[in-house]
Amino acid sequence: MQHIYYEVGSLDKKCYEKFALTEDILMEHAASSIARFIEENFEKKSSVLIVCGPGNNGADGLALGRLLYKEYEVKLYLPFGAKSQMAKLQKNRVELLGLTLHEEISESDIVVDALFGSGLNKDLDETSLNIINTLNQLNTYKIACDIPSGINIKGQVNQEAFYADTTITMGALKVALFNDEAKDYVGKIEVANLGIQRSIYEEKTNIFLLEKEDMNLPLRNKKNSHKGSFGHLNVIAGCKKGAGIIAAKAAFGFGAGLVSVVCHEDIDLPYHIMQTHFLSDNCTAIAIGMGLGKYETEEIKTILAKEIPTIIDADLFYEEIILEKLKSDVVLTPHPKEFCALLKLCEIADISVIQLQKDRFEYVSKFCNKYPKVTLLLKGANVLIGKDKEIYVNSFGTSTLSKGGSGDVLSGLIASLLAQSYNSLDAAITANLAHTLAAKNYKKNNYSLIPSDLVEEVKKL
Ligand SMILES: NC(=O)C1=CN([C@@H]2O[C@H](COP(=O)(O)OP(=O)(O)OC[C@H]3O[C@@H](n4cnc5c(N)ncnc54)[C@H](OP(=O)(O)O)[C@@H]3O)[C@@H](O)[C@H]2O)[C@@H](O)CC1
Ligand SMILES: [K+]
């Protein structure tokens, strides 16, 4: 997994104070990394429009122009002139080279957005907004320097932002790039080394970007085993029984030795899934909440009181009876609307989904600080998995998954791993990676996935 930071100013400061690097050196590396990307991906003589803002993001752009000059057709556009000291220095350098500044935006093979970076500190004025809208309409390859202009350091897009094909971010990964609102704008993300290796530049953090290698599938290594070796999951089915059945099927496909659906009425189940009216004696994990609807409160209380690994989803996030369970090691998988209800129930915040989506990291932190034993998986374009002080980000999410039933598959996958004795955090991480990577591997068009397709893809991982 890779490290993610709320800000990198303190890491830059370390470079100056501890390693005697200067701002100029860091900036030269920032610009060189974009130059290298262009040289590796585009033919010489291609035209490169670089839109430079008044601060150091613009200064990066000016330095890039200097590096590409002569080999590429460089068009520098500085709509606000150069205001920061570094921007003035870089502007002087390009002028000494004989590079002339352009007065307007024109079609080019590549556009580099170096308008605003980490210094975006207010709403975009009309001029900036017009520039960003015009750039977005160009039919060219788009590169954002550090962060697409219009996205603030929290990852919020309050008006509009630059739609990048690639973002080359300076020094280290930032939270701003992984808020859901930023997802459509950042494109592919690359990290530029600023003069020392990333492992030296970076410090300890408690936010991590998950990678495929972090997925620890429940592959069976022991030859001497039997079905009981892989646990017995009980899925509690409520009024919308389909949800529980989807979860049960996914859990079975992900390695649980036995799966039973707990339901009072007789239901049609595949032959390999059992039905029971009450919790099984040898139950090793419980999945509850999906499609539950109105269920007998006392019965839910009894189930939740069991000291058996449990995943809670959906309807239960609206019910006070789960509050006691939050003091224990349990997995919760709310989508944003359910998480807002939960935050209210827990008296942490009374906010709308829109407010939550603007500050997903903050509310996950608040919740996990209050309930450090809980593993919280907040669904979204980038899933956040929080446990105590740590947050893990899964950026493999795709709109292919935006369907009824996808969440039930995820609950089933997590529950399956809980039944197979994974700890809560490992179960949430591996199941969520499996869920998103399976969706990514699905070959048909991105609107057609149904839960059984997803389970089939999980089986092929
Ligand atoms: N630190 C380092 O060592 C390194 C830093 N590096 C680079 O520096 C970047 C950060 O530079 P930065 O701090 O100068 O901020 P930046 O993003 O250029 O914006 C500030 C300017 O924009 C203006 N402005 C802001 N919002 C606005 C708005 N809505 N509408 C209009 N104007 C607005 C703001 O105006 P002011 O607030 O002064 O009125 C100010 O003039 C960082 O992203 C990375 O690319 C790399 O080279 C690596 C080494
Ligand atoms: K930018």
From TrEMBL:
A Pfam family: YjeF_N
Protein's GO biological process: metabolite repair; nicotinamide nucleotide metabolic process
Chain sites annotated for binding (6S)-NADPHX: 56-60, 117-123, 146, 243, 291, 335, 408
Domain YjeF C-terminal: residue ranges: 210-461
Presence of the UniProt keyword Transferase in the record: yes
Cofactor: how and how many bound: Binds 1 potassium ion per subunit.
Cofactor needs: K(+); Mg(2+)
Catalytic activity of the protein: (6S)-NADHX + ADP = AMP + phosphate + NADH + H(+); (6S)-NADPHX + ADP = AMP + phosphate + NADPH + H(+); (6R)-NADPHX = (6S)-NADPHX; (6R)-NADHX = (6S)-NADHX
Positions annotated to bind AMP: 407
Binding positions for K(+) per the UniProt entry: 57, 113, 149
YjeF N-terminal domain sequence ranges: 8-202
EC number: 4.2.1.136, 5.1.99.6
Keyword Chaperone: no
Keywords: ATP-binding, Isomerase, Kinase, Lyase, Metal-binding, Multifunctional enzyme, NAD, NADP, Nucleotide-binding, Potassium, Transferase
GO molecular function: ADP-dependent NAD(P)H-hydrate dehydratase activity; ATP binding; kinase activity; metal ion binding; NAD(P)HX epimerase activity
NCBIfam families linked: yjeF_cterm, yjeF_nterm
Family named by the database record: In the N-terminal section; belongs to the NnrE/AIBP family.
Task performed by this protein: Catalyzes the epimerization of the S- and R-forms of NAD(P)HX, a damaged form of NAD(P)H that is a result of enzymatic or heat-dependent hydration. This is a prerequisite for the S-specific NAD(P)H-hydrate dehydratase to allow the repair of both epimers of NAD(P)HX. Catalyzes the dehydration of the S-form of NAD(P)HX at the expense of ADP, which is converted to AMP. Together with NAD(P)HX epimerase, which catalyzes the epimerization of the S- and R-forms, the enzyme allows the repair of both epimers of NAD(P)HX, a damaged form of NAD(P)H that is a result of enzymatic or heat-dependent hydration.
Subunit structure: Homotetramer.
Protein name: Bifunctional NAD(P)H-hydrate repair enzyme
Species in which this protein is naturally found: Halarcobacter bivalviorum
Gene behind this protein: nnrD
